[in-house]
Amino acid sequence: MKRVYGLSAAIERFSQIRRPGAEGPKSDGNGLFDHALDPDEFAAHVIAEVRQHGADGLLRISERLDGIPLSFIEVPQKLVRSAPEGLSGESREALDLSIERVRSFQETALPAGWTHESGEYGEIVTPVRSAGAYVPAGTAPLASTVVMTVIPARVAGVREVVLCTPAPGNELPHRAVLAAAALSGVDRVFKIGGAQAIAALAYGAGIVPAVDVICGPGNVWVTAAKKAVYGDVGIDGLYGPTETLVVVDQNSDPELAAADLLAQAEHDVLAVPVLVCIGEDIAKRVEAELDRQLKGLDRSGIAAQAIRQNGMSAVLDTPDEAIEAANALAPEHLCLMIEAPHEWSGAVTAAGGIFMGENSGEIMGDYVAGPSHVMPTGGTARFASALSVRNFLRTTPFLNLSEESLLHTAPAAATLAGIEGLGGHKAAAQMRLKKLVGE
């Protein structure tokens, strides 16, 4: 983990992490296309194939990418419904607790419509009709991501929620993923992944229905497809590799700080684990703990590469500088493992989620705390928010003006229309006045 000193050096290192010099990935889809394409080009070709050929295109793409034919697309509902029966008691209890807490959090966050006391204007809040959750299956069975994407949609009142998660050939998705789908209330499960799954959810493909909103994380190919279909369908956001910034001071527990950094680093070699230290001594202690704990980690190769390539330890002088550094990075996860973290959280202006104190480790947010763990990455926390019930709601303003209000406001409307040279607008306002008060 590279160590830097001072706020300016920390911010410069952040920018280097965000702007890697290497060229991005390209793929010909195992011969699906006649030359290698970047993610945006790849997504465009896959989407065109699915839109033109529907389920046949979906099957052809999946067979080429997986190397074997896709035997079926939809997981039989009886297999989904029975999946929880195969869980151990401990696993079932853990999933139930996660669902309970996520549902409670989202119910509390549920916005309500409102009407002004005059009754003349307000907003109506309604759910979208359908939603599609995408859950990756690259290196881990992400049952928790099922909960974190599906429960917010269900709390919003979405009528139909479907799930796409990849599984090749005649294989089924992991039992824990299917169990989470059953317990969270998924209506249908499709064993498709990649850009082709996003295309199917956006435009429909045979038995896969088109939805109104697509949510969930994915690799660079999935993200490119979400970006391409946005506008024809709603999306929750564009997600890159996971990021965690842990702020520590002389009173922090270096063992816990190292454990939280490793918990994110083991996700992906592209993960971004960042340590911000108020003082050099705690930096040395956490770095030593990272080396020690890496040796016993099952996914130590992945974590070590992420730390080596993208990790950083920044030594700063004050909590103010630490918060300024955090706001500059706008991390997905901001862990304030410092004394009196609540006193500093109000100064945070850009973070996907804030985890205050050593009891509130980011790992708790990943699984059972309550908020969805699908959070903005890549600096998008400057303007984006964590996935929530709000992603599945539409807010529609309404007007119900009285004659008195019309008399008061129509002249101004007519004047403004005249300024803009829009005669039809002006006439529509003046006509209402004439009908009320005459010439």
What is the structure about, briefly put?
The protein is of the alpha/beta class. It contains 16 helices and 14 strands.
Description:
This protein is an alpha/beta fold. It folds into 3 domains: 2-21 and 240-383, Rossmann fold (3-Layer(aba) Sandwich), CATH 3.40.50.1980; 39-235, Rossmann fold (3-Layer(aba) Sandwich); 401-437, no CATH class. It has helices at 7-18, 39-66, 77-82, 89-109, 143-156, 175-184, 194-203, 220-229, 254-265, 280-294, 300-310, 319-329, 342-345, 362-367, 403-419, 423-437, and strands at residues 2-5, 114-115, 121-127, 130-134, 160-164, 188-190, 213-215, 234-235, 243-248, 272-278, 312-316, 333-337, 353-356, 393-399. A 6-stranded parallel β-sheet has the order 1-11-10-9-12-13, sandwiched between helices. It has a 5-stranded parallel β-sheet with strand order 6-5-4-7-8, with helices on both faces. Strands 2-3-14 form a 3-stranded antiparallel β-sheet, with no helix packed on it. The protein is globular. The model has no long low-confidence stretch (mean pLDDT 94).
Q: Characteristics of this structure?
A:
single chain, 439 residues, Rossmann fold, 3 domains, 6-stranded parallel beta sheet, 5-stranded parallel beta sheet, 16 helices, 14 strands, globular
Let me know the number of strands: 14
Uncertain runs: none
Mean pLDDT: 94
Task: State the end-to-end distance.
Answer: 79 Å
Order of helices and strands: EHHHHEEEHEHEHEHEEHEHHEHEHEHEHH
Please report the number of helical segments: 16
Report helical residue fraction.
Answer: 40-55%
Question: Which structural category do the helix and sheet elements fall into?
Answer: alpha/beta
Percent strand equals 5-15%
